[in-house]
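Format notes (please read before filing issues)

Several people have asked whether sequences and structure tokens are stored in separate files. They are not. Every record keeps both together, in the order shown below: the sequence lines, then the token lines. Line labels are part of the format and must not be stripped during preprocessing.
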Amino acid sequence: MRPLPRGCGRRAEEAGGAGVVACRGVGAREAFQGQGHGAFVAGRAGHRQALAVEVLRAGRVASLFGDVSEVGQDQGRAGVDSEATVEVQPGQQEFLRGVQVTAVAGADGEARLGELARALEPSDVRGLRTPDVARAWTVSVPCALPCTVVPVTATPRSRKPKGPSGQARPTPPRPAPPRGVTMTASREIRLAARPAGEPTASDFELATTEVPERLGEGQVLVRNTWMSVDPYMRGRMDDAPSYIPPFQLGAPLEGGAVGEVVASEAADVPVGATVTHFLGWREYAVLDAAAVTVVDTSIAPAAAYLGPLGATGLAAYAALTRIAPVREGDVVFVSAAAGAVGSVAGQIARELGASRVIGSAGGPAKTKKLLDIFGYDAAIDYRRGGLPEQLAQAAPDGVDVYLDPVGGDHLEAAIGAIRPGGRIALVGAISTYNATDPAPGPNNLFQAAKQEATLRGMLVTGHLDLFPEWTGRAAPLLADGRLRTEQTVVDGLDRAPEAFLGVLRGANTGKMLVRPGADA
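Then the structure lines:
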């Protein structure tokens, strides 16, 4: 590794194949220009600002680096711009799709940025998006190769920039791709605003972008045919610490998807293969081959790999085998029993030897399906009220296992009914996801202590090692009809936000899926 120039320090560890160097003070520009390709950022001296740099690899964020703050503290001359740089280390350029700098917006709600010049290829140029802070930055990329300079207008996260007439500014034209490079138009859903409470359609925006058909070594271009919308995504809309990073304002959302490989530079992932990956909410995605999984559509339909053979099916299996294991003769209670996890969980509990399986769902249509399709012995309609009383009627001697995707009153009712040595798997809390104030906990928690019951949380990502075991058991059950499932399908990428909002309101039976390329 080369020594750092004077005034520079390493701002982040090696991540995603790109090392990062940040420089401040007089001479930083000259020091950086001698170091290679990268992004150069100049800010007003003496002001504390945050600078986030995302290195995009194969179309997805590989690294998010920390603040470059107190820019200009060691400048020494008031009113002179100090300088900060971020460098992509030599030898990594061929793996990067570009460098995106999240700059700052002016106090009047508009950001007047300078220029974005490309360090790799013109097709790698990305737009600039800005959070609301106090000052504007000038952004440029010093080039060892011939550069194309592209004027850009940044968009503050709270609203579109306005012109003198109050009308929204048009999006600047995209640069033409280099000669011989074909671009594919792709629509995507981006996060337009962070919701307070229940999300609305205005928190999302549909945008059209372009993805290159010329791929790097080991990359694939996937046309998404199915995508998943799931309750956990609500948490990613908030800018708050969690087990998974939040969605970024102005950037496309992410989530599970199944698609067809339409171009490939990876020997193990040929054109025509069906793959699963995590770049949903868009029509096309460029990914590293390591980020996709080839699935066998001869044993199950492609959509099943987002439902019973995907993360939701795995969540039900892991919950009832590892977190709150079902034993022969157990009484099992499942909330959200007509949803993606619950509709599979009741049938798994039966396969594992449960003597009685009770489900809760909203409305008579869903409770009927619990009994007629999903194999439940008793069904509770929580919309009727009196949840503890309904549960006591369905399980007069109590319950041994409770699978909880809901939280709130369902968790309280289950604790009230738990038997000695009972097990509760906490897999979600959809009843609280839109809360603007902290949700109260169960008022009978000590009942769990008296019964020596176990309450254990679960993230499905901690149990991915069970995938082969689960799919090996589930695929034959699905094929011969012993595992019965349903899905709720919404056609058209533009309706994906509608589908997501529907999941939060309980509009789905089974797995909620979107067909991005289908017209509504």
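For reference, the curators noted about this record: The first helix runs from residue 28 to 33. Confidence is low (pLDDT under 50) at residues 1-172, 174-181.
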